[in-house]
Amino acid sequence: MLPLLTFLTLLLLGYLSGQWLERRHYRSIIEREQQLQNLPHSNSRDLLLPMQDITRVELLAGSVVISIDYFKRVVAILRSLVGGPVASYETLIDRARREAILRLKQQCPDACQLINIRIETSAIHNAAGNGIGSVELLAYGTAIYGRVQTATTAATASVLAASQQSITH
Amino acid sequence: MYMTNIETVPGKTILDCYGVVSGSTVRAKHVGRDIMAGIKNVFGGELRGYTELLNESRDEAIKRMQAQAAELGANAIINVRFSTSSIAAGAAEIYVYGTAVRVG
Amino acid sequence: MAYQPRLPKTNVNVSRQRPLADLLLIGSALTLLLLLLYWLLGLAVDKAISQLDPKLEYQWFGQWQQHSASSPVQQQLQQLSDQLQQCTALAYPVRVSYLDQPLVNAGVLPGGSMLVYRGLLTQLPTENALAFVLAHELAHLEQRDHLRGLGRGLVLAVLSATLTGNANAGQIFLPATELGMARHSQQRELAADARALAILHCHYGHIGGAERFFQTLAASDNSQLPDWFASHPALQKRLTALQTEQQRHGYPVQAEQPLPEVLQQLTTAESIRIEYASPDAR
Fold first, then answer.
1. What whole-number distance in Å separates Cα of residue A17 and Cα of residue A39?
2. For a Cys staple, A14 with which of A70, A143, C24, C29, CB 3.0–4.6 Å?
3. Is A91 on the interface with C (CB under 8 A)?
């Protein structure tokens, strides 16, 4: 009887705390995404916006490790018997990825752009060896500081370039 | 929706960029596939069940990424990258990410 | 190209969220399936055991026999056990070991080894009551219950390990396995009680004293928990089952015989011990 009660208690604890923490985390994520949405970012290797001059280039990384709760693990094991999408892990990965990217962005709020964003996932096994204990997400990219070339500066530059040509000609 | 894994969509110009979009799924295999895999582990060869499973998951992830890009108003995704990881016994996570752009 | 800051309104990366429904649905379906499988495999185990020759069992497991030192108490118990064994179908000798510990219990091991603890002897005021307990254990051996339990335990462990690929995930199926094992074990206990009554009747001609052990236990047992997951049925259930069995076969109840000298000394020694330990326990 006792192992059964322990199991059920852990399950309930995992469910309640997991759901609460998840909802709280999502609220925080959505709020910060609103704040940081103006930072240009992409995962191309080319500059997203042409720069007039570049003062600093920095490689930055943001990472987060989120733990799996008991309820998620049980549901995942049941799912792995019948097959199909494991919704409980999907929220976990989604939260972790968005959090990692936010942490990356938070480190360069003044940057002109953040390019070549790459994302890596790894599963960290727990000491007991029975399954995954937590998931680590790493997001890294290059932040470019300086001055973006706007339309007027671009026009000035091309005019200057044209005038230069006529002088040397 | 165009998708490339280079920095441009050849033959088109990029007009707007909407940032990084991603799609991910976590899929579990069922017992049947597991048992077959166990047997195959003895003999070797392709695990067709798993290949199918992961292909389906990848398609689902790509669809999700395209849905997210479309919601932002993009019509192409450049620099697409894939990643597979095993995050639980019996479940694999596939995610695909890229930059959503509007080309014309 | 220009950067347009936009945020998606929906989250495409999570499927419809109904984890509780998932858990309950899949959990209960799996539990039912497991119970069914357990029952079927249990039948298979029973079939296999009925094919197993008792002599073979004695050969295999006989080496595990416990041999406690021969003492007057042990000899007395052995004598009583041998007499009772005449009324059973057991073909091999059963060795009784007396263990000087205050545990109120008796048990059997595969191969024909019976263990009797001192604590039990002090709870039984008459020889008939003691005989019932010994007969109950002999009935277990006769019905090969120990092997059934062993077989089922093995089957369950292998099943959960294979299905989940993870030995520790057997926890998930705990409700199903505990329920299955408890039900089976309780059934076997009631069957052993009934058989013990028959053995008692065969040896003494009556079944006086059979209920005494349970009545003594019931007096000191205040547990109100249901017995769904316990290995033995509730005391009241066992008493009722005994009475039903008696009525069905029409066993008579007559006066009981007192304990043999040697064992009576144990009881007195124990009550002195208790009195000494707590003088105001009266």
1. 33
2. A70
3. yes
Burial of A31 (0-12, 13-18, 19+ CB in 10 A): exposed
Mean pLDDT of all residues in chain C? 78
User: A43, B90: Cβ pair inside 8 Å?
Assistant: no
Q: Which domain holds residue C128?
A: 55-277
Does residue C47 belong to any structural domain of this protein? no
Instruction: State ipTM.
Output: 0.77
Q: Looking at chain C, which subunits does it touch, using at least 3 CB pairs closer than 8 Å as the criterion?
A: A, B
Q: What is the 3-state secondary structure (H, E, C) of chain B?
A: CEECCCCCCCCCCEEEEEEEEEEEEEEEEEHHHHHHHHHHHHHCCCCHHHHHHHHHHHHHHHHHHHHHHHHHCCCEEEEEEEEEEEEECCEEEEEEEEEEEEEC
| pLDDT of res. C282 | 43
The verdict on residue C185 lying in a domain is yes
Nearest chain C residue to B88 by CA distance is C166
| Among B17, B72, B89, beta carbon nearest to C8 | B72
Q: Profile chain A (169 residues) by mean pLDDT over runs of 10 residues.
A: 78 89 94 93 88 90 89 82 84 93 93 91 74 85 90 76 61
Domain range holding A77? 2-168
Neighbouring chains of A at 3+ CB pairs within 8 Å? B, C
Please judge whether C3 and B31 are an interchain contact, meaning their C-beta atoms are less than 8 angstroms apart: no
Total domains present in chain C: 1
For residue A28, what are its two tokens?
């925080």
User: Would you say A36 and A105 are in contact if contact means Cβ atoms under 8 Å apart?
Assistant: yes
Nearest to A43 among B31, B81, B85 (CB): B81
Contact B18 C6 (CB under 8 A): yes
Residue C3: list chain A partners with CB under 8 A.
Answer: 40, 48-49, 113
Domain CATH for A90:
3.30.110.70
Q: Which token pair is C197?
A: 């009554």
Q: Does C163 sit within 8 Å of B71, measured CB to CB?
A: no
> Within 10 A of C206 (CB to CB), how many other CB atoms are there?
16
Of B17, B22, B25, which has the smallest distance from its Cβ to C3's Cβ? B17
Q: Which helix (H) or strand (E) holds C72?
A: helix C72-85
Split into its structural domains, chain A has a count of: 1
**Which domains are delineated in chain B?**
2-103 (3.30.110.70)
Nearest Cβ partner for B68 among C2, C12, C163: C12
Q: Which residues of A touch B28 (CB under 8 A)?
A: 76, 79-80, 83-86
- Touching subunits for chain B (3+ Cβ pairs under 8 A): A, C
Q: What are phi and psi of B60, to 5 degrees?
A: -65, -45
- Supply the pTM of this predicted model: 0.69
E strand or H helix at C187, and its extent?
Answer: helix C174-204
Q: A78 and C225 in contact by Cβ < 8 A? A: no
